[in-house]
Design brief:
Number of domains: 2
Structural class: alpha/beta
CATH class of the largest domain: Alpha Beta
Number of strands: 9
Number of helices: 16
Largest sheet: 7 strands, mixed
Amino acid sequence: MGILSLAKNAYQRVGDPLTDILTVARLLGNPRLPLLLALSKGVVEPVYRVSFLASAAGSGVLARLAHRPCDVVSLADWLGVPPQERDRLRAWLDLGVRLGDLRTTVDGCYRLGSVPARALARPGNDATAAMLEEVTRFHVPALLDGPVMPRDGRRFSLGDQDGAVIARSTRVVQPFVEEAVSRNLDRALPVRLLEVGCGSGVYVRHAARLNPRLTALAVDLQQDVADQAAANMAEWGLSDRVETRQADLRTLELEPQFDLVTLHNNIYYFPVAERTAVLRRVRSLLAPNGKLLLTTSCQGGNIGLEVLNLWFANADFGGPLPVENELVEQMEQAGFVDVEATRLIPGEQFRAFVGTSVRPVQP
């Protein structure tokens, strides 16, 4: 990145008598200079800025500075940075100032300095902040390592994800998933719900609010995510109605007792070749006339979804995002009837799939 900065500075300092004229002439005569300058401003700086904002939001620094300006000492104490490491924290904060997302006050405190920084600091925009963190931490490596991973036989593992970040970022589609839940949940009778891949538990909470007689089992593959969901249920006063645990659907031993099974944003955690068997396993847990509600991004969506598809194509678990017709066929092969696919977001490949189990699965 040094040549970009050098070329840019040299270009801006033409006419400065202290500048080495020959050096400036050589740089300005470089036919690659326009490309370097264009990349610096149009590509490199936005990457730096997104990375800084994701880090500042994820660490809580933006929310802290939204409360009040802080000097480096108070921020270091709040973050748990020891005194001997404060200079490193200061260097990071000063870079935020250089990028324009932080500013300094006359007494040396840091404060929010841009519209995006102030927006991301608001609690209601936490899902968007988490999405930026997901992009920088997980999507970017999929692009950077895309050519070499197939060559080296290397794949991403579940440990390469941060379940808490993923659970937060998927909440950008929360209103649309909640609408799908509202359409498919019986509110007049007691309902027994199984949620597979519960994340933070917000969709179970939504269902419980719609039907006061609903009880649920919420499971997640990752222990830390399940633990956080259990803590959330306790905070929301739902522990007496919702059991939360770590579990894998494929080995979950339960009676066919559920009126509704939901899978949100996670069918691609199962390999394509296993999805029919997984869906048949879901059907085995449903009571007669029970429903499956599955919401998911599908292939052919926006660029973010295509990078997500690339990540799972390079994972040692799961598989690519589903194709609509293929997933409908897999549900039918698993024994579901009246299968329907509905677009949840206009113009986007985010859909709800619903099917009914009219009879028990034969052993």
